[in-house]
Amino acid sequence: MLPHTIETESSLLEYDSPQVNLVHWMHQCELLKRFYQAQEVIVIQHTARGDEVIVSASSDSQEFVAGTLLDDSCSILKKLIQSPIEGVHIDLSVAQIHDPSNPFHHYKNLLARPVLWPDSSLFGYLCVLGQDLDTQGDLAAHMMEPFQLLLQQELSLLCQHHQIESMSMRDLKSGMLNDLGFMMMAPRQLSLGRRFNAWAGVFVFELALTPELEERHHNLLGSILQNTVRTSDLAAHLTDTEFVILAFLDSEADMDTLVKRVRNKLYQLDETLELNVGYCFFSPDSTVRLANMLTLAKEAMHTHSTKQNPQQSKDDSL
């Protein structure tokens, strides 16, 4: 299974990661072009927008520059999707008679091997185009295997990097963002919220220290917070006892509503717990930095220690 941060239908050209070196990919295309004495060597990715050229060997034609979208209604490309792992050799002089939309109509032969993501789903194809590619006979497509494996190895490194990054940004016990994850993700969310003129609230929650307090109570609070926030909000486990929420709100009154919701849920599960809460409200044009937002919310928290009361709020909706 691929990391959730890997979007297989997004173009690799949109990724900014040292694990995939597209210059290295281009050099591999150059080597293949020399080996087969081909006219074109290209790597195509199957994306949500269609089949897109990711890299290609240098060529005078400039027909397959990076970012070029190919006509995915072409029967040749459909054949590539269904091609076996060992690759295919297609005589284009015959294929193009039946398919005028063929993007390879200037060429006589096509050698191709599928390139796969680590979970064996299709990434795209490594393609060699030329007039005379059958000198190796049935071995022609097999000779591309080492290059295919090199590309797949870099895709695997990209996925491993995302997996490690995802793990290091999350608290292992709760699965929530940790302090590093929050400080990396929150500025991005704030920037997005400001673009849409959304008001932001930063909340810090901590269970008051009492003789009855146990580790499971912190896990309970974390679970409540995760189930309280919306998709656009962020919830994180900052320290052993502190939790933070970055929420986008319609008005300042919504801050009290969110806090009351958390208090009510906590009371329903354990009425002996005491909760410290601090929060601050920021307008879309605010220039306050995230670290300062957190400081203000923590200062507010230290002035508010509230014991649970089932009558504190009857309002359980935002």
Question: Can you give a write-up of this model?
Answer:
- The protein is α+β, with helices and mostly antiparallel strands and 318 residues long.
- Helix content is 36%, strand content 22%.
- It contains eight helices and eleven strands.
- It has a six-stranded antiparallel β-sheet, sandwiched between helices. Strands 8-9-7-10-11 form a five-stranded antiparallel β-sheet, with helices on both faces.
- Helix 6 crosses helix 7.
- It starts with 21 loop residues before the first helix and ends in an 11-residue tail after the last strand.
Question: Strands, helices and their partners?
Answer:
Layout: H1 22-36, E1 40-47, E2 50-56, E3 69-70, H2 75-81, E4 88-91, H3 92-98, E5 109-116, E6 122-130, H4 145-168, H5 179-195, E7 199-207, H6 215-228, E8 234-237, E9 242-249, H7 253-269, E10 274-282, H8 290-301, E11 305-307
Antiparallel strand pairs: 1-2, 1-6, 2-3, 4-5, 5-6, 7-9, 7-10, 8-9, 10-11
Helix pairs in contact: 6-7
Please tag this protein with its features.
318 residues, alpha+beta, six-stranded antiparallel sheet, five-stranded antiparallel sheet, elongated, disordered C terminus
